């Protein structure tokens, strides 16, 4: 996500050591994302067995079925499957799934960190709580507050679906609870908050409120150095985020940045189509570019977006954290100067820099774009993914992969009149592509199926074992040059419930 000044330094793999790596990747059609061709004098062994490939790909798998009836009504979600494959060490992506216990619906989130993992970690822990609290009616919030006042156990707000590798910021838990409580106290003081916010209102409010709290926490004094350092790390790192609230009647998606949610639709003839439920907030989105430019003087129109990046540095145009693009320079210097003199900014992964042409901050915010979709019987599943997935797969391709994985049916379009005129060599290529689409799936988990195809698909749509092995066997300090962290979550929808609601 960050510009050239923030690329990793590949200290243990000097560029002079890259010779035969490039010829191996050339055969598989792999190019570094940076556009730089690498060579090494060593003949590196990129051969992984099928067992090793499967072990790497399935390490972070998660598959959970959801009860059809949860005591309050029928669930719109049947089950979900999720997976992550890191390129950074440690992984900068995060994912969250939870059922709202004091209101209705399920929440699914994917978060893509940059400048470290700290911000994505904090947002993945906290954002779903803010959304759920905002949807709670005043009566339920009053119960929470009374329990806190009298030291009684607080009724659970969310039922989390965690992977065994997930962790929380334990040292900051009390701070996070305190600020969540301040949020619900403000809702209690509001005369308008009676029945609770709608999902759309709650999503918009929660994104902005959490980002404001992240900014505030980095500015207040702490007696605990660990909490202070964590707050600084979170605020100076950044992350994009996309959250889907799946309710009884429809889906609300809130997006800030370049994660993405796609709806898989099965048409009457059995074919699959993709319906985007989010828009990427980057320089390829012209409406987003104009939105940013309109917030600053006309004299900055040529400098706000440079080289398709915000101020020439940041690729996403909305994000949590990233206070280097939000605070005044005076505030940034003051906060960093307030750290203990012995604090090592490098060890905190905090970079003290000023983006070019930093004249009229803030340049960045975390206000989400919210899209609502009323559920229909043909709506079969959601795919949530960080941009590492969408760098490798198109929307239609991803839906086709999951749809055919779900149905086990690989529909082939009839040979068109133009295809009948192909020469023999071209016809052979067409047959290879059609054959590749009909190949058996390796994975029960659809998210793993997506990641396998994202990294291992060859020129004809076939799975190339050599390509996949090469991508998975890259050393830690090379992997990020060829791919990004990938997170994918596939949410299967209850089409029977949609039929009832739709009719």
From TrEMBL:
It comes from the Eukaryota. Pfam families: PP2C (PF00481). SUPFAM superfamilies: PP2C-like. Residues 77-493 form the PPM-type phosphatase domain. PROSITE patterns: PPM_1 (PS01032), PPM_2 (PS51746). Signal peptide: none annotated. The keyword Hydrolase applies. Gene3D superfamilies: PPM-type phosphatase domain (3.60.40.10). GO terms for cellular component: mitochondrion. One of its GO terms (molecular function) is metal ion binding. The keyword Transcription does not apply. Keywords: Hydrolase, Metal-binding, Protein phosphatase. SMART domains: PP2Cc. InterPro entries: PP2C, PP2C_BS, PPM-type-like_dom_sf, PPM-type_phosphatase-like_dom. Belongs to the PP2C family. PANTHER family: [PYRUVATE DEHYDROGENASE [ACETYL-TRANSFERRING]]-PHOSPHATASE 2, MITOCHONDRIAL, PROTEIN PHOSPHATASE 2C. This is PPM-type phosphatase domain-containing protein. It comes from Mola mola. The lineage of its organism: Eukaryota, Metazoa, Chordata, Craniata, Vertebrata.
């Amino acid at each position: 996500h960050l510009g050239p000044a923030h690329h990793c330094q590949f200290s243990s793999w000097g560029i002079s050591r890259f010779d035969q790596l490039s010829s191996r990747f050339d055969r598989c059609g792999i190019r570094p994302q940076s556009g730089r061709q690498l060579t090494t004098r060593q003949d590196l062994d990129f051969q992984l067995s099928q067992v090793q490939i499967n072990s790497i790909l399935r390490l972070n798998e998660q598959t959970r079925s959801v009860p059809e009836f949860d005591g309050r009504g029928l669930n719109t979600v049947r089950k979900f499957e999720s997976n992550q494959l890191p390129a950074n060490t440690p992984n900068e992506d995060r994912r969250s799934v939870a059922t709202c216990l004091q209101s209705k619906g399920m929440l699914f989130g994917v978060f893509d960190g940059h400048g470290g993992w700290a911000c994505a970690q904090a947002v993945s822990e906290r954002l779903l709580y803010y959304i759920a609290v905002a949807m709670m009616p005043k009566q339920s919030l009053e119960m929470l507050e009374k329990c806190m006042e009298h030291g009684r156990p607080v009724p659970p707000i969310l039922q989390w679906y965690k992977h065994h590798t997930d962790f929380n910021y334990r040292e900051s838990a009390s701070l996070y609870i305190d600020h969540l409580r301040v949020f619900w106290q403000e809702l209690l003081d509001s005369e308008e908050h009676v029945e609770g916010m709608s999902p759309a209102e709650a999503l918009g409010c929660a994104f902005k409120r959490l980002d404001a709290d992240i900014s505030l926490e980095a500015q207040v004094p702490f007696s605990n150095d660990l909490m202070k350092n964590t707050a600084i790390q979170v605020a100076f790192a950044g992350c994009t985020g996309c959250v889907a609230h799946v309710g009884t009647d429809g889906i609300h998606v809130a997006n800030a940045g370049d994660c993405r949610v796609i709806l898989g639709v099965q048409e009457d003839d059995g074919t699959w189509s993709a319906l985007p439920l989010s828009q990427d907030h980057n320089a390829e989105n012209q409406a987003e570019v104009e939105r940013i430019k309109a917030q600053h003087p006309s004299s900055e129109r040529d400098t706000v977006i440079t080289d398709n990046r915000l101020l020439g540095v940041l690729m996403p145009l909305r994000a949590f954290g990233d206070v280097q693009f939000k605070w005044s320079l005076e505030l940034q210097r003051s906060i960093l100067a307030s750290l203990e003199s012995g604090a090592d900014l490098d060890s905190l992964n905090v970079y003290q820099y000023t983006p070019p042409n930093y004249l009229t901050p803030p340049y960045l915010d975390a206000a989400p774009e919210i899209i609502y979709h009323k559920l229909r019987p043909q709506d079969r599943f959601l795919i949530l993914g960080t941009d590492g997935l969408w760098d490798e797969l198109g929307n239609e391709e991803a839906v086709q992969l999951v749809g055919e994985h779900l149905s086990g049916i690989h529909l082939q379009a009839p040979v068109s009149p133009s295809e009948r005129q192909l020469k023999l060599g071209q016809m052979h290529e067409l047959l290879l592509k059609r054959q590749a689409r009909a190949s058996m799936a390796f994975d029960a988990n659809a998210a793993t199926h997506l990641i396998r195809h994202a990294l291992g698909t060859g020129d004809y749509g076939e799975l190339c074992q050599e390509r996949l092995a090469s991508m998975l066997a890259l050393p830690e300090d090379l992997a990020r040059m060829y791919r990004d962290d990938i997170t994918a979550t596939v949410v299967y929808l209850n089409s029977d419930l949609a039929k009832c609601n739709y009719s």
